[in-house]
Amino acid sequence: MATKRKAAIRYEHGVRLSPPTASRPYWRARIPDASRPQGYREESLGTDEAAAHARAAEIDRQLVSRTRAKLAGRLDLPYSDLLDAWLDETQHPGWSPNNRSQIVGVVNKWVRPTIGHVRCGDVDGSVYQAVFAAMRAADLYGSLDRMRATLSNAHNWATKNRWLEPGPFPVSAADVVGRKVTQAGTEVGFIPEGMRPDEPRVGRLISALETIGHGGTWWRGLQGQVAAWPGLRLGETFALRCCHVDGQLLQVNWQYIEQAADFDAEQTRKLDETPGELLWLTEESAVWPSQPGVLLKRPKTEKVRTAVVPPWMVKRLERRVEEVTGLVAPPCPDCVDPHCSLLFPAPAGGIHTKSLFGRDVTRKAFDRTQGDADVNLRWPTKRTGGWRWHWHDLRHRAAVHHLDTLKLPVSDAAALLGHTEKMLMTRYYGSVQGVLDRAIAAYAQLG
Predict the structure, then answer these.
(1) Going by C-beta distance under 8 Å and a sequence separation of 6 or more, which residues neighbour residue 357?
(2) Tell me, what DSSP letter sits at residue 141?
(3) How many helices (H) and strands (E) does the chain have?
(4) Residue 286 contacts by C-beta under 8 Å, 6 or more apart in sequence?
(5) What is the pLDDT of residue 1?
(6) Per-residue confidence (pLDDT) for residue 2, from 0 to 100
């Protein structure tokens, strides 16, 4: 019978002692070392088990002693000071402005108010768990993994830059979610039924969208339908133009996102000289001088695609194309027709932005469903008072529509939605309807 291999021993401050193996007949210590590219160094501790244990424990004590000397003055600072240092732009030259903006947003909303006052010397797993507990209380289970990645990134930077004592991020992925009922047959990351808008509520939202604006705007309902059936992201609907509509086909080539661009002297000169043109900052991104805070980019993951709309939507799209043709709009990046306009512009005719759209359109439409006598048609709220579903959740409805109603292969649905097959399998596998009916029918066939 083979001898069971001994497990590695982890010490309090990050040292890890590994037992001998068939190819390595000595005990080996892995010691945290931020100066090394891999983040650690290794040291042989001989073949005597007791001596190896003693030496590893001594290294671990020395490690924390040296670190505390280097940390002098920082352990008493609040965690908010650590966050300020970590979020300094010079620390992350690879972060895009959009990514940085999102990280700063979640840090300011959840991390600072919850643990910003804690001394750096007191930060441990229980401190980080307070952030996750606050998010679970707000029913934000879908954002927990991303928050763990953010806090882990900050923690690893802080240990490397001598803000925190050495050691790995002390909260495992399994510890983050807490108690949560999941559906059998699904993977982690699955979007449960309660997070996918149902068709009756979507229909009620469409009618509410058509009342937004002076005298109502029927085409805001169409914008919602484009999100809920072919599954365009919000920024992709902002960038949809006349030339992108061809019967049942929608060409999804671009998205508009809010991202303040830093212009160099030459770019600034071009903006001033050609206010009516698109200024291309790279081959794949551009700005329009009239709205320099909005960036034109390829869709997420740079995947252009063709989406398919239901036959009943074709006439509505044709009507909208006729309405907007010739209206003032940013120049089209895909054709030279000066009359090619945006299908879903801002009220003044420019590019809509996510923040203003949420304030002026989405939340107003959600609120207008709340007076319905039928509670099953109201846009649902969380127990904390916020909206349970957001605009982007219409895309979840579109994904399930492609899988359940159209019954397309996962590869086809992924191509139409701009997803990867793996993403669709993770998020929606198990969503296919009829599981119970098929099981009952199978028993019936047995007689």
Answers:
(1) 234, 238, 391
(2) G
(3) 18, 11
(4) 278, 279, 280, 295, 296, 333
(5) 42
(6) 46
The residues that bridge with 279 in the sheet, in sequence order, are 287
- Give pLDDT tens digits for 72-128: 567 788 999 999 999 988 888 888 777 888 899 899 999 999 999 999 888 999 999
* Residues constituting the chain: 447
Q: Which residue intervals of 87-167 are DSSP H helices?
A: 97-106, 112-115, 125-137, 144-160
Q: How much helix, strand and coil, in percent to the nearest 5, is found in the chain? A: 45, 10, 40
Overall pTM > 0.70: no
Q: Would you say 76 and 119 are in contact if contact means Cβ atoms under 8 Å apart?
A: yes
Contact 144, 176 (CB under 8 A): yes
Strands (E), 303-347: 305-308
C-alpha span between 262 and 259 (Å, rounded): 10
Q: Are 239 and 254 in contact (CB under 8 A)?
A: yes
Beta strands, E only, 247-376: 249-252, 255-258, 279-282, 285-288, 291-297, 305-308
CA angle centred on 39, ends 106 and 71, rounded to 5°? 70
Q: What is the mean pLDDT of residues 204-218?
A: 88
Considering only CA atoms, which of 341, 325, 323, 310 is closest in space to residue 217? 323
What are the tokens at 69?
């000397």
Give the rounded percent of residues in the chain with a pLDDT score beyond 70.
88
